[in-house]
Amino acid sequence: MTKDKLSYGEYLQIDRLLNLQSPKSKEIGSEVHDEMLFIIIHQAYELWFKQILHELDSIIKMFIGNYVQEENIGTVVGRLDRIIEIQKLLINQVGILETMTPMDFLEFRDLLNPASGFQSVQFREIENKLGMTSSQRIKFGKQRYDKFLEGDDRKKVLETEKETSLFELLEKWLERTPFLQFEGFNFWNSYQMAVEEMINKDMDRISSNPNLDDSAQKVSLQNYETIKRTYEALFNEKKYQKLMNDGHRRLSQKATRGALFIQLYRDEPILQLPHQLLTHLVDIDHLLTSWRYRHSLLVFRMIGVKIGTGGSAGHGYLKKTAEKHSIFRDISNLSTYIIPRSSLPELPEELKKELGFYYTHGK
Ligand code: HEM
């Protein structure tokens, strides 16, 4: 007997997929036209969340252990890039939902009570796997976010809190950045000297600028003292630790040093992919923030300052999450410590060779 040929519908289980939309308004006998759009949009989001988790899990797997194989970095960068493209789509998708008017939404909104996007398990899994900590989360009605989840949903989300996150794995990976100390070359001392020279030059320029009056000069010099202190914390373990204790930094000093080396010497062949990896993580963080803003504006447009179906202060709560729920902020913040290419300490010739492509082929 010959087996039936596989069809498009069978392979993708289209029948099942298209039977998963059950508007509540239809159930009670007065179907509201826009509820179908509301359901499909949310389901589409959840499908894309599933794909993001699929990528994230594979990336985390490649990072686990003490050694990220060099050939894996390209794959990691490619998969992060895929997440970025999906995120862009997710932000644009909000526009489709905005074709529904607030009045049309009100026709079925009460039927959703007390369900809320706040209960999206996959959204929480993405946040936790990326590295969001429960202590940094804005409290929701003075309660922890997981209090609004039940049974297996809650268990699943709490499991991801215990797993090692991408942030933690990245930190360990950065802490192992090679070449910071290479024979006679100490990156950290050379960098510190270059920074001091740059700041002193700028301060001299301010002091001798004939266009600045005394008070403008004083303000500019005071600003530079602050910049100087920010740099000092980077060189001084105790000061850096204080920044961490006060919650101003999360990434360890050692990892920050590794990341800075990568960002400063990104032009060297073997640092190009690590640089892209860091840039992608910043992109993902920024796109997540953009989605939060976009969603909070959508909520404002739909329900104004009414409370959410989940019971939060709606728009106000969501706006705060956009401001505070950043995961890779310390990587974005490396820009504070970037110096011009022309001021970069020159690498010893031997080290430059090590950082060239021949290094990987030569081994
Ligand atoms: C008419 C459209 C929408 C309205 C009025 C709305 C409203 C809200 C409100 C008020 C909250 C805060 C929690 C609460 O009190 O319920 C919330 C949270 C949330 N919503 Fe929506 N939402 C809409 C569309 C969407 C869509 C399309 C998604 C896509 C999955 C979504 C995902 C989420 C998520 C993940 C949260 C939790 C955010 C966080 O805690 O950081 N929402 N939504």
Q: How would you characterize this protein structure?
A:
There is one protein chain. With 363 residues, the chain is mostly helical. The chain has helices at 8-12, 14-18, 24-27, 35-63, 70-97, 102-109, 121-130, 151-162, 166-175, 187-207, 214-235, 237-245, 253-264, 272-303, 315-324, 329-332, 349-354, 358-362, and strands at 181-182, 185-186. The chain has a two-stranded antiparallel ribbon with strand order 1-2. Strand 1 and strand 2 (185-186) form a beta hairpin. It is globular. Bound molecules: protoporphyrin IX containing FE (HEM).
Write the layout of secondary structure elements.
Blueprint: H1 8-12, H2 14-18, H3 24-27, H4 35-63, H5 70-97, H6 102-109, H7 121-130, H8 151-162, H9 166-175, E1 181-182, E2 185-186, H10 187-207, H11 214-235, H12 237-245, H13 253-264, H14 272-303, H15 315-324, H16 329-332, H17 349-354, H18 358-362
Antiparallel strand pairs: 1-2
Helix pairs in contact: 4-5, 4-7, 4-9, 5-14, 7-8, 9-13, 10-11, 11-12, 14-15
Protoporphyrin IX containing FE (HEM) binds at residues 41-42, 45, 97, 105, 116-118, 120, 123, 295, 298-299, 302-303, 308-312, 314, 317-318, 321.
Strand content: under 5%
Task: Kindly report how far apart the N and C termini lie.
Answer: 56 Å
- Integer-rounded radius of gyration: 25 Å
The spatial strand order of the largest sheet comes to 1-2
Q: Helices and strands, in N-to-C order?
A: HHHHHHHHHEEHHHHHHHHH
- Count of individual beta strands: 2
**Number of helices in the DSSP assignment:** 18
- The coarse silhouette is globular
Kindly name the structural category: mainly alpha
Residue share in helices?
Answer: 55-70%
What does the largest sheet look like? 2 strands, antiparallel
